[in-house]
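Long-time lurker. I teach an intro course on protein structure, and each term I like to show students one example going from raw sequence to a predicted 3D structure in token notation. This year I'd like something fresh instead of my usual example. Would anyone be willing to generate the tokens for the chain below so I can use it in lecture? Attribution to the forum is fine with me.
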Amino acid sequence: MSRFERVKQWSTFARTWHIYDAKWQNPFQSAKVITKHLEGKNKPIYHPSNDCGDHVIVVNSKNIALLGREWQFRVYFHHTGYPKAYRHVGKVNGPLWIPAWQLHDRDPTLIMWKACYNNLEGNLLRPKNMARLHIYPDEKVPEDLLENVTNQISGIRPVPKSLDQYSDKEKEEFPKMFDYKKDFVQDYKGLDNQVNPKEAEAIQKLFQPRPIIFK
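-- Reply from a regular --
Happy to contribute to a lecture. Here you go:
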């Protein structure tokens, strides 16, 4: 076996570290791509009973995007383990249905974590695969993890730039629908002094609230 083939063999059996930017990405479509790397389905040596998955670092999980009004209508079920009749002071026990926006407000990494967890097969390898998933709400990742990253997973859809990211030259060269006239916005400075005071008082009386008399 040549040295090149030997290196290819080592890279195949080694655990690779990938990074994925979840900004403006659908978490449920992203989970299908992330779980393939967690299970090792991107490798030619994959087998359902073979633990050959890689590590995946997900950044910007607080900027994920859901379709339409899914933030309000998607609900996550949770049970505290106590019966509903048993209540503490200020606490609610029993089954809870938490909307997606409220769950995301509590922990920006939970929706992405649950999407990847539900997309994995419910076998004995799922806890080991989830242990290799590292989710962070922003771009602050420990340096000891970034040193291991050797690959970047491309996003599902391109992220559009915000208005402050465009330069002044790009804004000027952007095609315009129509051009405003030079006198489109007029200067009204000093026009208030030209109003007749008697007319102003008459207009003010019209808009004064009148008392309601009950008979």
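Some talking points for your students: Residues 3-155 form a domain with the Ribosomal Protein L13p; Chain: A; fold (CATH 3.90.1180.10). The beta strands are 17-21, 55-59, 75-79, 95-99, 133-135, 149-153.
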